[in-house]
Design goal:
With 165 residues, the protein is an all-alpha fold. The protein has a domain of 87 residues. It has a two-stranded antiparallel ribbon with strand order 1-2. Strand 1 and strand 2 form a beta hairpin. The longest helix is centred in the C-terminal third of the chain and has 41 residues. It is elongated and about 60 Å long. It comes from Danaus plexippus plexippus. InterPro entries: Lipogen_MT_Stabilize_sf (IPR053719), Spot_14 (IPR009786). This is Mid1-interacting protein 1A.
């Protein structure tokens, strides 16, 4: 198998996994997995979206600091959509989301020419792997914070409309 075929297969497997998450299939991951955090985020935002029947009512909720509940609701839904479908002709407020993100750019430059003549491919790959691990830790942290925000927003909405919490 060639390198390009391996990457294509890996990307397709990742897309299929994310599609299963979007459909809420019962796929299990390690509790330490970024996929587990992604699954929780997607499920919680889906629950939030199903709970918030009248998003304009979020405008009546008290604002906590800079967090406007309606904007938070919209942002969480937009992030869920981007996480699941970016690169597949997804649009965000009328513009196409780039297939080549800043993170991909960082990873390409980390894996590419370092400017040091004769650098070993293993050293380059090790740097890229370390950068990937750092980004995954950051992604997991972000997903956990965003999931908590969706939980809080859902509960606040339920209290506002008098629904059971």
């Amino acid at each position: 198998m060639s390198f390009n075929t391996d990457i294509s297969t890996t990307l397709e497997n990742s897309r299929n996994t994310l599609r299963k998450i979007a459909r809420n299939d019962n796929t299990e991951f390690s509790k330490q997995s970024v996929l587990n955090d992604m699954e929780k985020f997607v499920k919680m935002v889906t629950t939030m979206d199903e709970t918030v029947l009248v998003p304009s009512r979020l405008m009546n909720l008290p604002q906590e600091g800079d967090d406007d509940p309606f904007n938070l609701y919209s942002m969480l839904n937009d992030l869920k959509t981007e996480l699941l479908w970016a690169g597949e002709e997804t649009t965000e407020r009328g513009r196409r989301i780039s297939d080549f993100s800043d993170t991909e750019s960082d990873a390409s430059s980390a894996a590419g020419d370092s400017g040091i003549d004769g650098e070993d491919e293993r050293e380059s790959a090790a740097r890229a792997a370390a950068a990937c691990r750092r980004h995954l830790r950051g992604l997991r942290r972000c997903l956990r914070h965003l999931t908590a925000a969706a939980v809080h927003l859902t509960r606040s909405y339920q209290e506002e409309v008098g629904a059971p919490v």
